[in-house]
Amino acid sequence: MRRRVAPYFLLGPGAAWLLLFFVIPLYYLAKLSLNAGVFGSYEFSWHWENYSDALQLYDTQFVRSFVYAGLATLFALLLAYPLAYTIAFKAGRWRNVFLFAVVAPFFTTYLIRTLAWETILSDQSPVVSVLDFLGLAPEGHVLATGGAVVAGLTYNFLPFMVLPIYASLERIDARLIEAGKDLYASATQTFLRVTLPLSAPGVVAGTLLTFIPASGDYVNAQFLGSASNQMIGNVIQSLYLKQSDYPAAAALSFVLMAAILVLVLIYIRFAGSEALMGEEAV
Amino acid sequence: MDDHHGETPSVELRSVTKRFGDFVAVNDLSLELERGEFFTLLGPSGCGKTTTLRMIAGFEQPTEGHIRIEGEEVAGMPPHKRPTNTVFQSYALFPHLSVEANVAFGLKRKKIAKDEIAERVKAELERVGLAAEANRRPSQLSGGMQQRVALARALVNLPKVLLLDEPLGALDLKLRKELQVELKRIQRDVGITFVYVTHDQEEALTMSDRIAVMNRGRVEQIAAPEQVYDRPATTFVAGFIGVSNLMPATVTGGQEVKLDEGTTISTSTDGFSQGDRCHAVVRPEKLRVETDGNGNGSAELPRVEGTVTSSLYLGTATQIAVDLGEGVRMTVLVPNADEAERQRLPGGGARVALSWEPEHMHLVRESPNGAPAGSTDGASAEDQSQKLETSQGG
Asked: Which CATH architecture describes the domain B11-225?
């Protein structure tokens, strides 16, 4: 008997936490999203128009959010994979130093780091002068452009990409790589046929951990973008805190959640398929 | 073994040395393997056997010396360009690929035609009895099955040399014995040179055509299994293969040695000169225990006297430890053929004489590379009986 009870006992605190801080707020948010009326006198009335309005009014911001988050995820992946690979296989005794360097930004708050980027990307900064010189900042400025927002998102979520990829690479048995070489695969072939497929779980985890929070982010667009770079997070924040249009903000939140869920499910379905896991047909 | 002069050796190592920093893993090693030979590198952990194998495979490069495979120098050549394949200790099967795709991996890299790959993979899986498991993942197979997949994955490429790094080490005893027989059968069928690394002396004796016994980066003896067992070259080989009784002695004449405890015995002293120090070796199953009553008819045999310190019942045999004094301890293995006879064996404290046929005694040199771990002096009775149990089959 005791053995059957133990798992539930262990799940208890986590389940209680989720109920209290996720399920109950979600319920109130769902109810709020169906309220109608003006500020001060919102009433629950199955007001589905909040949803259709949300989609009609803010479709540009939705699309922009996913484009920015998608680009940031792609850039983070391109930066993180070689970095994680180097730390896992080539860093030797410097491994922990590098890992610390990856995590070190977390010692400063997210907000401060993003504000620092505002300075780094400002028109007077040497970084921008160099980019300008290289022809990468066409109008002589970077701040308040979509590029700046994507750069900020990439920077802020990079550790969430590096760490899972590192963890999956580090776990790979060195003998598997030797076996690849023993079976006539060159270094490149061994990477493509053995190392890459075996690190796929880390890549999937890293992209999810980057894409999901990046889609809902508003801090980077707020500080590094202009009015024309607003993401859906900025709209929700503004509706909630500035215009006090709680039902619209709640409806938008639900639409965002649903959209992310659908995208993630499609992604996992695709990523989990044999093709991406490196299965070769005979 | 001498009839292959003039033929290019399958694998040739010339004065190969491998250093890792200050540590010399392999020291001035030279080997010549015949084509189609089952050659075993045997020794305790850290003796350099695995490093030697990895140098043949190309995972390590020798610090000095030459490695040739069928006459072609391979030092400096990466593993994927060598005509060798390896069966790894923990199999190293690709977990993300099916059994079939694991076996096909090497052929695909060699750009073999698809039809031929499918055919060869199928034939190889049938050879190891896993045709039905072709589409399963390695993690769904038992250890023994995984081992067969690893073997098929290597053999399907028809390498010139197959390298096996303790391939049976992770399996239980019964399965290990089955696979020993199967491996040997497959090796005879395919006729490929096998280089087999193990620390298990019984495995080496059962399967090999020749054995190289290694100690501290050097080879102590290269010979056929019977030679290694009956005519060990050094005290290390004598102690590592089976249980040996080493009696310190001095060569006193052309055909004569004097044991330190006093007995003079006439024997072959080939390779020794008068005055040389050596050890006289007699295997435990070749010794006879004589108590006062039953010494008849063997008066002319060489004999030594000592005190019984323990008597252990091992099932098929009884193991008696006899202390000759001066730190020399002998182990005697008496087959339990007759219960009444077994009852008459001397117990602890009894004074006994040990005798043996002169041809069962053999002189060995002190190992130039130090004593093996767990040599006869100082080894506990349990160690000895464990060794005895595993050596009886060989």
From this structure: 3-Layer(aba) Sandwich (3.40)
